[in-house]
Structures are given as C-alpha cells and as structure tokens.
C-alpha cells in the first residue's frame, strides 16, 4: 500500500525532510510514516499484536490529525470492525470477547470490575476470572463500544486488552519475572535482617553494648526499607485501588500490617525505645510474594492449554490459485472454498474437506486419541491435525476465527470465566471475612491498649497477618481452573459454569444409543429383496430417499449421481422417510414406521425396511460398532450408585442385541424425540437430577431439557451444539474421566475451604490472646495459601 513516498498508515505524502525520520517496523520491513502521530498509532497497533489490521484493511487509516496519541483515545482503534474480526465473536447483535487483564490480585478485584458493569446499558454478560486473569464479556455494539468498556476498566486501575494466547503468555512471563525480582530482594534482605535479629534478641552473644545494638537496628532499617518500598509495592497498589473504589480485598489488611510494623519499628529505632520487627516485615513480604509467585505459576500452567492449542495453527498455508499456481499465504487470509495443499508431515492449516488424495491424520491434539485416522475424499479434516502419509488437497469450510481450535479455545475461556454457585459463595465469604478481620483487629487493639499497651500493636499485627484470607480466596478458583484444563486436555470441553457442581448431584444418567453408545458409523452389510427389483435398483431407491434424512443411519446409503427425483418427500424425525413418485408411496425406516414385523436375526445388525404402497419390498441390514470402553464406563457408573437408562428410537429387539451384557438398568425403546423429552421432564418433575448423553443433533431438545447435557460431538457440529459438555474424544472412557474429575474437584474444593476456614478459626483466638508472634503468623498464613494451591494442582495429574 505504500510506494515509498506515501505514509503506510494514512496514505498522505511523506515530506522529503521527514523521510527516514518516522518509521515503524511492520513485517516484513520498516514502513515510512508522515508524522509522529501516525508513528505513535502504528506502534500501538503493532505493540498490541494487531499487525494483521494492515493486511486486511480495505481503506487507509484516519490521518494523525484525527488520531490524538492519548492513551485512552488509542483504545478507540479497537472499535474498528476489521480489527475486531480477529478476536470478537458475534451472534446476531450480541458481540462476545475474552480480554486479558493485568493487575488482578484477588476475588475482590474481580467483584469490583463485575459490579461496575452490572447495570451498564448494552452489557449482557460479564464475568471476571481472577485465577486466569481473563474477562468474558458480551455487549451490544450499538449501545456501548468496546473502547468504552476498555476505558472504564482502565479507570478502575486495571489494564485490559483482547485475549491473544501469545500476548497472554508474555504477560504471565513478565509478571513472573517482576515477582521473581521482588522475591529475590525480599529473600536476601530477610536473611540479613534475621542475622541482626538473632544478635539483638538472643543471649548467645551476652550483653551487647548500646552502641552496637543501635547500629544493628539502623542497619536493619536500611536493609528492610527496599523490601517495604519495592518488594511489597504490588500489595500497596492493590490496597489503594480497593480503598479508592470502596471495596475490601485481602491486600488491605496486608498493607496495614506491613506499613504499621515498619513505621513502629522505624520510630523505635529513631527514638531508641521499644522493640523492632524489621525481620517480621521482611519475612512477611517474602512469604507473601512466594505464595503469589507460586499462585501465578499455577495460573500460567492451567492457562497454557489455550496458548498451546493456538500454537497448533500454522502461520502459513499453500493455497492453489484459480490459475492452478501455488501461493504461500498467511493462514488468516484463507477464505471459504479456497483450495489448500497439505503435504506429508505438515499440519493441516484449516477446517475443510479432502478433495483429492487419501492419507491418515493424527488428531491426538484435539481428541486425545493417538492412533491416526484414515481419511479419503469427502472426509473432514481439522486445523492443527497432522497429515501423516500422503499429500492431500483440502477445500476450506471454516474461516480462521471459526475453525475447530478457535471454537475449543472460545468454549474453554467461557467455561473458565464463569463461576458456579460455590465459587460465588466463597467470594462473598472472603469479602465479608476481610471486613470482619478489620473490625476484630480494631477491637483487639483497643483491648490490649487498656490491658498491656506495650503489646497492643504487635498483637494486632499478628491478628492481621495470621488471619489474612488468602487461602480462602484461592480455595475454589484454583481447583476449578485446574479441573477445566485437565478435562480439556482429554477432549472434554466444559461449556457451562454449573457443570462440575451439578455432576456431583446427578441421580440418573440417560444415554441415547445410536451415535452415543455406538460410533454412529454405519455400514450396509447386505440387502434382502422381497419383490422383483434388483439389489442395485433397491439401493438406488433407498439412497434417493435417505438423502433427505439427517439421521446417522442414512450415512450407510452411499450417495449416487443417478438418483430418483421424488415428487414429494417427508422426513419423520427418528422414524424414517416417506416419498411419492409415479403415483406410488414409498417408506423407508424402522419396523414401526413401515408397519412391519421385526426380523429375528442373529447378530447385532440393524434392519431398515423399504415399502411400496404399504407392501414390503426390501430389507437392508446395517451394522454399527460399539464405542471403545463402553462396558467399562457403564460398570463404573453403576458402581457409583447412579441409575443408567437407555433412551432410543430403535426397536427392543435390535436394542437388546446391541446392548447385551451392558450395565443398563432401564431400557426405553421405540421412543420418538418427543418421547425422550417426556421421560426427562417426568423424572425431573419427580426431583431427580438428570444427565442426558446424546449425539448432539437429533437429541437437541432432550439435551436442552436435562440438568446436565453431554454431546458426543466429533467436531463438525461443535459450534451449533446446545449441550453443556462436548466430548471430542470418540473413546467412551471420557465419560468416566468427566464424572471422576467432577467428584474429585468438589472433594478438593471442600478440603480447601475446610482448611482455610479451619485454619483461620484456630489461629484467630490464639492471635488475639497474644500467643502467636508476628513471625509465626507470617509463616502460618503463607503455608496455608501454599497448601491450598498445591492441593488444587493435584487435579492436573
């Protein structure tokens, strides 16, 4: 777009005097700018990871005169639809985005941001996850702009930007380095101050002259000051933000304790009276920072899945142009119906259909199954999968923003940003606990001021430190985030916030058969004619009817170019297809639909009947394989005490053949979708919590009605699936993982909450009584938080 004399940003002429003066590197080279304004805006765009704006824009950017390089005004660049196209998901008039936010430290920060948007016009949903440092928000663009949302967050004291996996990872690395530097300084200072404290208070050195005692105090003051001013700075910033916005976070009592202890010790040093606790200040800061550092590492570990999945998408793709030439272009520029060549050993750059070639594809990064899957013409392939053998040509069916990996990341972010009831309750308890702690501390100070004034300050300090609710605020979000990441790695996508909580309360699990317990990949094994037509003619008739069906069984009838054109057809969902041609009425489907007597055949074959004017003319025998580990999983469910029910539209005869030997206590056969829905509603009306597992297409109404719904999705219907959980893995053992993880998650959450509340209940009276010195309070509080984090990380194993 630039010819060397025009500004690459706005297109205005670059004056000779300004050449080589204003430049910005925009891959793959440096670009000329006409003025400092354009240079500043371009640097902001590139620095925000939005360089693709220049690749996709259809017009030149506004001139620098129109763009004031002010920090808040810069946010207006995010209102550009071309820029939003990369990271905003739109459903009708509702837009949805996941933001990365810097500065979150606890549940109070999350509550503050949420509260400030709750009554804002145009905001449909907002949820802040302090564990993953992300905000999920839905809004109506005509009522509020994205830049206004970002400005409001900025005014609250936080920095937010569109979530990008690489930028999010950089933010975590930057924070880790910052905490590590602060932690290192606090650690070194603590060791030095502790040596002076031993000399001051122990009797090992005998009586120390006043001159040396004063010297040690002043040296301790000098060493502890950088810890207070630099290492502890994040606590003050968060506390100041809390006070400014009239909220209570855990950093408020922490900051009061640190500043109070330092001020009192400094006063004692300057006046030569009283005791000093510089070692407690340094140690408190060190242990707090150590806990925050480990917490941050835990957050980074649990958020790595999104980043790793995003890295699966290759940057470049080999596109076939209209003139048959091949061109290497950025993957983001691929459009629907483009043709892409994927060579052996390369990663598939798009969701699409194979148009030429046959190969095997490794989809383990998506489903967790490590055996390559054979793919041929008309087979679907997905972004991030590995082409193992032969070169294939793929027709693009999904754009970059809507491919399977992008959908998985979006669903995971939605799940992680949502909060179940137990998490909301824990946040509320944490906020009220801080208020109660401040009141109790004030009461403690007044009591000791009258009883033993010389101890009042230090006892109050111990109360503030020992009972800081860090562990309480970490108890729930760390466990939920770890559980969600663990399940995602195994191809189990949690879409709704209530799932893990509701799974622990389920009374009965209902399964569909076709496409759920079975693979739903049907093969026509034989045809039996009951008339004069040949097998080829019968197959042509059946195929022509089944092309109008979306039922998985219809896939057994291979498409043919020589089809019969029916005058009318009607799809009877869950039963079969009927049609009229040349005055004759044809039906194909189940025995019930075609009014035939079920065939009593050996084996596990499904029988499909074809009738002409109510007369049977053919039987089609179809076979469907059972999913891997169905028996193992159903045995586990039955042993867990849950009722197992099968809801299927198939006949009792076929159902019994397929499910023989499985731990199914209740079988409901020959059910229409309405019949399945009626059963679920009836059970829930009797106060039963129902889990429905279906194939996600024909079972959509039933999935929506159940307390918790699981779809056995293979990926292609992921975007339109209405289920609470989507299982990408074709191995049924994923159900066992999901149920076991939900149980383990809530067991760990209860352990965390019991420990956090139990510890605070135990330490509080001891601290109030003066039995806990400040340095013991520091160690106890830090170990409490570390125990909660370590316990939650067990969910990742």
Mean pLDDT: 78
| Molecular shape | globular
> Structural class of the secondary structure composition?
alpha+beta
> What is the strand tally?
29
Distance between the termini: 51 Å
For the sheet with most strands, the description reads: 7 strands, mixed
Helix content: 40-55%
Strand content: 15-25%
Contiguous low-pLDDT stretches (5 residues minimum) are 62-72
Task: Describe what this molecule looks like in 3D.
- The protein is an alpha+beta fold.
- It has 26 helices and 29 strands.
- The strands form six sheets. Strands 17-29-28-27-18-25-26 form a seven-stranded mixed sheet, sandwiched between helices. A six-stranded antiparallel sheet has the order 9-8-10-16-11-14, with no helix packed on it.
- Helix 22 (652-658) links the parallel strand 25 and strand 26 (666-668).
- Helix 15 (453-466) packs parallel to helix 26 (774-793).
- Residues 62-72 have low confidence and may be disordered.
What attributes characterize this protein structure?
26 helices, 29 strands, 797 residues, six-stranded antiparallel beta sheet
Describe how the helices and strands are arranged.
Elements: E1 23-26, E2 29-32, H1 36-47, H2 52-56, H3 71-74, H4 81-84, E3 89-91, E4 94-102, H5 107-117, E5 123-129, E6 134-140, H6 146-155, E7 159-162, H7 165-201, H8 210-231, H9 233-244, H10 251-271, H11 278-310, E8 316-320, E9 326-330, E10 339-342, E11 352-356, E12 359-362, H12 364-367, E13 373-375, E14 380-381, E15 386-387, E16 392-396, H13 404-417, H14 421-451, H15 453-466, H16 470-489, E17 492-494, H17 499-503, E18 508-511, H18 513-517, E19 518-529, H19 535-546, E20 568-572, E21 576-581, E22 584-589, H20 591-594, E23 606-612, E24 615-626, H21 630-639, E25 643-647, H22 652-658, E26 666-668, H23 673-685, E27 690-694, H24 700-705, E28 708-711, E29 725-727, H25 733-768, H26 774-793
Helix pairs in contact: 7-8, 7-11, 8-10, 8-11, 9-10, 10-11, 10-15, 11-16, 11-26, 14-15, 14-16, 15-25, 15-26, 16-25, 16-26, 25-26
């Amino acid at each position: 777009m630039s010819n060397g004399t025009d500004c690459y940003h706005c297109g205005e002429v670059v004056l000779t005097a300004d050449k080589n003066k204003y430049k910005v590197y925009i891959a793959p080279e440096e670009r000329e700018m006409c003025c400092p304004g354009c240079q500043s805006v371009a640097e902001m765009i590139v620095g925000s990871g939005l360089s693709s704006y220049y690749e996709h824009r259809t017009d030149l950017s506004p001139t620098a005169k129109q763009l004031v390089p002010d920090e808040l005004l810069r946010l207006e660049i995010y209102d550009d639809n071309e820029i939003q196209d990369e990271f905003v998901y739109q459903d009708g008039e509702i837009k949805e985005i996941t933001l990365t936010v810097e500065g979150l430290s606890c549940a109070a920060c999350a509550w503050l941001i949420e509260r400030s948007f709750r009554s804002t016009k145009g905001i449909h949903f907002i949820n802040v996850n302090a564990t993953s440092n992300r905000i999920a928000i839905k809004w109506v663009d005509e009522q509020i702009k994205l830049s206004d949302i970002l400005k409001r967050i900025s005014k609250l004291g936080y920095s937010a930007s569109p979530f990008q996996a690489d930028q999010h990872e950089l933010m975590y690395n930057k924070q880790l380095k910052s905490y590590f530097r602060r932690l290192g300084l606090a650690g070194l200072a603590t060791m030095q101050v502790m040596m002076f404290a031993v000399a001051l208070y122990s009797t090992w050195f005998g009586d120390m002259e006043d001159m040396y005692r004063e010297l040690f105090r002043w040296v301790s003051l000098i060493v502890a000051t950088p810890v207070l001013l630099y290492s502890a700075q994040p606590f003050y910033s968060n506390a100041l933000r809390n006070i400014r916005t009239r909220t209570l976070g855990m950093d408020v009592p922490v900051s009061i304790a640190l500043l109070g202890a330092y001020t009192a010790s400094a006063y004692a040093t300057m006046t030569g009276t009283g005791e000093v606790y510089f070692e407690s200040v340094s140690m408190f800061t060190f242990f707090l920072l150590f806990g925050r550092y480990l917490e941050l590492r835990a957050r980074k570990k649990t958020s790595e899945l999104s980043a790793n999945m995003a890295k699966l998408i290759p940057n470049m793709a080999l596109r076939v142009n209209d003139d048959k030439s091949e061109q290497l272009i950025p993957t983001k520029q691929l459009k629907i119906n483009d043709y892409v060549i994927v060579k052996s050993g390369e990663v598939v750059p798009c969701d699409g259909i194979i148009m030429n070639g046959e190969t095997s594809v490794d989809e383990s990064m998506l489903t967790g199954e490590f055996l390559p899957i054979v793919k041929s013409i008309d087979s679907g392939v997905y972004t991030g999968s590995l082409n193992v053998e032969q070169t294939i040509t793929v027709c693009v069916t999904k754009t970059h923003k809507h491919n399977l990996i992008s959908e998985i990341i979006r669903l995971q972010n939605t799940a992680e940003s949502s909060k179940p009831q137990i998490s909301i309750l824990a946040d509320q308890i944490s906020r009220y606990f801080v208020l109660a702690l401040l009141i109790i501390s004030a009461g403690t100070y007044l009591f000791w001021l009258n009883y033993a004034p010389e101890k009042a300050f230090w006892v109050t300090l111990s109360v503030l430190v020992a009972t800081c609710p860090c562990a309480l605020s970490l108890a729930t979000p760390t466990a939920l985030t770890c559980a969600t990441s663990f399940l995602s790695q195994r191809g189990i996508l949690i879409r709704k916030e209530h799932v893990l909580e509701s799974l622990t309360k389920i009374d009965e699990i209902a399964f569909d058969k076709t496409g759920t317990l079975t693979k739903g990949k049907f093969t026509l094994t034989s045809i039996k004619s009951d008339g004069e037509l040949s097998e080829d003619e019968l197959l042509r008739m059946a195929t022509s009817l089944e092309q109008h069906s979306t039922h998985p069984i219809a896939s057994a009838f291979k498409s043919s170019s020589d089809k019969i054109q029916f005058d009318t057809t009607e799809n009877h969902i869950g039963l079969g297809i009927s049609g009229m041609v040349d005055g004759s009425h044809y039906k194909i489907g189940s025995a019930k639909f075609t009014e035939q007597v079920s065939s009593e055949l050996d084996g596990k074959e499904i029988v499909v009947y074809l009738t002409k004017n109510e007369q049977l003319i053919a039987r089609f025998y179809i076979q469907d394989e059972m999913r891997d580990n169905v028996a193992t999983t159903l045995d586990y469910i039955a042993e867990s005490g849950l009722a197992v029910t099968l809801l299927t539209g198939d006949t009792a005869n076929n159902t019994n053949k397929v499910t023989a030997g499985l731990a199914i206590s209740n079988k409901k056969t020959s059910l229409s979708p309405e019949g399945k829905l009626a059963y679920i509603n009836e059970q829930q009306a009797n106060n039963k919590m129902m889990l429905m597992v279906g194939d996600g297409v024909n079972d959509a109404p039933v999935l929506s009605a159940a307390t918790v719904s699981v779809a056995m999705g293979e990926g292609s219907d992921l975007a339109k699936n209405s289920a609470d959980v989507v299982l990408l893995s074709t191995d049924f053992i994923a159900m066992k993982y999901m149920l076991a993880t939900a149980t383990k998650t809530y067991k760990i959450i209860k352990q965390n909450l019991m420990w956090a509340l139990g510890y605070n209940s135990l330490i509080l009276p001891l601290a109030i009584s003066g039995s806990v010195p400040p340095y013991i309070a520091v160690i106890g509080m830090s170990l409490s938080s570390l125990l909660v984090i370590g316990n939650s990380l067990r969910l990742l194993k």
